[in-house]
Amino acid sequence: MSGLAILTAAQMRAAEQAAIASGIPEYELMERAGAAAAEIIWRAGAKRDLLVLCGPGNNGGDGFVIARLLRARGVPVRVAALGESRTESSLKARAAWNGPVEPFDQAAPATQIVDALFGTGLSRGLEDAVADRLSSLTAQASFSYAVDLPSGVDTDSGALLSHAPLFGVCIALGSLKPAHVLHPAAGLFRRLVCADIGIVASDQVHRLSTPHLTRPLTSDHKYSRGLVAVVGGSMAGAGRLAARAAARSGAGMVRYLAAAEAAAGLDAIVTVQAKTISELESSLVDGRLAAVVAGPGLGSDERAKERLAAVLACGHPLVLDADALTLLGSGAAEGIPPGSILTPHEGEFARLGFNLRGDKISRATEAARRTDAVIVLKGADSVVAAPDGRVAVSSGASPWLSTAGTGDVLAGLAAGRLAVSGDPFSAACEAVWLHGEAARRAGEAFAADDLIAELPAAIASRL
Ligand SMILES: NC(=O)C1=CN([C@@H]2O[C@H](COP(=O)(O)OP(=O)(O)OC[C@H]3O[C@@H](n4cnc5c(N)ncnc54)[C@H](OP(=O)(O)O)[C@@H]3O)[C@@H](O)[C@H]2O)[C@@H](O)CC1
Ligand SMILES: [K+]
């Protein structure tokens, strides 16, 4: 499951250097970048008047190429530059532009605006007056494009170094960067297009791609398709949501290990009374169990701790979420069976006690390495990281997912996919994708139960 590669600024520079070493001059890369961006702008805005804002580096150089190529196609183009061009290639691109260059602080608005002020070389926030003017010009335009990145975002973390406006399109050059998928930067454009400029971008970090799922074989039976156990706790509803999601995940069978007299909510789910620790332990002694979910509704008292200890000792691949993560606390790096998945949101991640700083991708990767488990660091941008360094990042999930119970659904779904394939990284990626797709199908103001109802259709769309 690999989507578009995501490269940090340093990795992008290395890929650029490799392309240059292979015989493609830097200026040729700039011409390719400008041509690819100009084509995208031409298709969107045709001959509407256009203002290109050019910065001092190579991002600005791309802007001069865009201006020249669109003017040659009959677009009324104006260029406003923020100071002098400072790189060899941008000087060359500026010299090839055959029109006037206005000072940035006097540029008048236009129907279309191109932000080619700063890209991967941004080292600090824009000056207030520059950021304000960029925002104002962008707000007044009907069509707006950010070249490579919206100016003001940190390439590797997606943080905002200065405030930036909302763009219509962001044109990523050569490869995606973390800021294209991590929030808040990933929320600064409505559409993202990645332009191929002939740079080979191979890396272990990718945007989450649509999964390819398979149908059961005619020879399959409920156990070969995967048996899931969901450990119930004091808040039975959350565990039941996880169980019902697992039952609609493609797995063959789901058992709900109830901590109280409560049915699992679907007749197809086998409810096993597991009130005492010994009942729970014996219900987990089954070699056919392919995945066990613990955490949703588990509780946080002594009894919950004992139940979690029994789960950790069972040896089956686990999906740990919610209360299980809180109870694990700073002991998270020890005792997690191999092949497991942890699904923390940022709050739960902080409670796991890794004391990690930095961007979301690096933190999730390091946590996966330390726990030897797949980490799904949830949010508007969910990062799925494997202990071997593979990472998939999903962005653009429905904002309606921020409602009670959707995390329980994801945990059950991840366990179901894990039971089907036995591969925790692809299971976690499939679960995140299916969860997002189910939300898209559920529309607006849905409840977690509605999300579960959409899972079969989401799965059917990828068979
Ligand atoms: N990689 C590739 O394969 C290809 C990359 N290409 C393009 O190159 C772009 C990267 O270009 P780049 O490295 O020249 O950096 P860029 O973002 O233009 O700016 C750096 C300049 O801005 C300055 N500066 C920084 N922050 C500032 C601030 N807040 N306020 C004011 N100034 C500030 C900084 O100076 P300094 O930090 O030293 O003060 C420096 O002078 C990339 O995004 C893509 O568009 C394509 O052409 C082709 C293939
Ligand atoms: K830009």
TrEMBL record:
Gene: nnrE
Required cofactor(s): Mg(2+); K(+)
Occurrences of domain YjeF C-terminal (ranges): 205-462
Keywords annotated in UniProt: ATP-binding, Isomerase, Lyase, Metal-binding, Multifunctional enzyme, NAD, NADP, Nucleotide-binding, Potassium
Catalytic activity: (6R)-NADHX = (6S)-NADHX; (6R)-NADPHX = (6S)-NADPHX; (6S)-NADHX + ADP = AMP + phosphate + NADH + H(+); (6S)-NADPHX + ADP = AMP + phosphate + NADPH + H(+)
Recorded family membership: In the N-terminal section; belongs to the NnrE/AIBP family.
Assembly and binders: Homotetramer.
Entry-linked Pfam families: Carb_kinase (PF01256), YjeF_N (PF03853)
Lineage, broadest ranks: Bacteria, Pseudomonadati, Pseudomonadota, Alphaproteobacteria, Sphingomonadales
Species of the source: Sphingobium tyrosinilyticum
HAMAP family: NADHX_dehydratase, NADHX_epimerase
Domain spans labelled YjeF N-terminal: 12-205
Binding residue positions for K(+): N59, D115, S151
Function: Bifunctional enzyme that catalyzes the epimerization of the S- and R-forms of NAD(P)HX and the dehydration of the S-form of NAD(P)HX at the expense of ADP, which is converted to AMP. This allows the repair of both epimers of NAD(P)HX, a damaged form of NAD(P)H that is a result of enzymatic or heat-dependent hydration. Catalyzes the epimerization of the S- and R-forms of NAD(P)HX, a damaged form of NAD(P)H that is a result of enzymatic or heat-dependent hydration. This is a prerequisite for the S-specific NAD(P)H-hydrate dehydratase to allow the repair of both epimers of NAD(P)HX.
Keyword check for Disulfide bond: no
EC number: 4.2.1.136, 5.1.99.6
Protein name per its UniProtKB record: Bifunctional NAD(P)H-hydrate repair enzyme
PROSITE patterns linked: YJEF_C_3 (PS51383), YJEF_N (PS51385)
SUPFAM superfamilies: Ribokinase-like, YjeF N-terminal domain-like
Chain residues that bind (6S)-NADPHX: 58-62, 119-125, 148, 238, 297, 345, 408
Cofactor binding, per record: Binds 1 potassium ion per subunit.
